Amino acid sequence: MASNQVTVLSTTALKTAFDALGPACESETGYRLRLTFGPSLQLEKRLADGEAADIAIVTHGGAKDLIASGQGVAGSLADLARSFIGVCVAKGAPRPDLSSAEAFKQAMLRAKSIALSKPVGGGASGAHMASVFERLGIAATIKDKAIYGAGGPGGLVGLIVARGEAEIGIQQMAELMAVPNVDIVAPLPEALQSVTQFTAFVLSAAREPDGGRAVIDFLRKPAAKVVIKAKGLEPN
After folding, report:
1. Burial classification of residue 69, based on how many CB atoms lie within 10 Å of its CB (0-12 exposed, 13-18 middle, 19 or more buried)
2. Does residue 27 contact residue 217 with C-beta atoms inside 8 Å?
3. What distance in Å separates the CA atoms of residue 171 and residue 24, rounded to the nearest whole number?
4. Which of 55, 100, 171, 220 has its CA 20 to 30 A from that of 202?
5. How far is Cα 167 from Cα 2, in angstroms, rounded to an integer?
6. Cβ(2)–Cβ(222) under 8 Å?
7. pLDDT per residue over 9-27, tens digit each?
8. What distance in Å separates the CA atoms of residue 98 and residue 188, rounded to the nearest whole number?
């Protein structure tokens, strides 16, 4: 294997996929992976502030903005997977009714505590849920019972629920699936759902742009898509 290393800044939603695909990716591309994960909106800010990497995987809109501002290579944009927001409870706990927007609203009002991504500076799900609660007219009530995850692999919402610190957790489905001791209830009702498109691109200041492109190409192959789907995302 070549000694070359590709530095990847990626949304936490893809961590479990990288855990499974990393060895094959390194073997096939000949590049070692140096992976850093975090909430997509945090990563976008860090990249805008000049953090170095070879490729980044963030929201589609964030990737486009970074390329437009000169941080990314024009033409390197590659949509990888779409992510849906879901709800979890502790293993074996009663499952709330999520069959409609009204049922979801009532479940949130009944819950004693709700774990979420931060609405500002966190993941895409946190910002979306803040707008959902506003739309449902329950933002003030939720504020009193919300517990916000720290972000990144160690700050997953599911971990808060698994520890018994929150009754219900809401985050990207792939991130909920990364925690073993929770039950995933269902995705959000369609009327409240937000689909996040995660997109890869090569950074303008990449030290290994060819390696970065090789990693992106690997992630778009059929075999990689099977794994990405199994980890809770919808590959493009």
Report:
1. exposed
2. no
3. 28
4. 171
5. 48
6. no
7. 999 999 999 999 999 999 9
8. 7
The residue with tokens 């990626």 is 10
What pLDDT tens digit does each residue of the chain (236 aa) get? 345 999 999 999 999 999 999 999 999 999 999 999 998 889 999 999 999 999 999 999 999 999 999 999 999 999 999 999 999 999 999 999 999 999 999 999 999 999 999 988 777 899 999 999 999 999 999 999 999 998 888 889 999 999 999 999 999 999 999 999 999 999 999 999 999 999 999 999 999 999 999 999 999 999 999 999 999 999 99
CA atoms of 75 and 201, how far apart (whole Å): 8
Helices (H), the chain: 15-29, 40-48, 60-68, 101-110, 124-136, 139-145, 157-162, 173-177, 209-219, 222-230
Give the Å distances, CA to CA, from 183 to 43, 130, 135, 176, 186: 28, 23, 27, 9, 9
Distance, CA of 69 to CA of 201 (rounded, Å):
13
CA 198 from chain centre, in angstroms, equals 8
Domains of the chain in sequence order: 5-82+195-235 (3.40.190.10), 85-192 (3.40.190.10)
pTM of this structure: 0.87
Q: How far is CA 176 from the centre of its chain?
A: 10
Strands 78-83, 196-202: pairing kind: antiparallel
Rounded to whole angstroms, the Cα distance separating 208 from 221 reads 20
Residues counted in the chain: 236
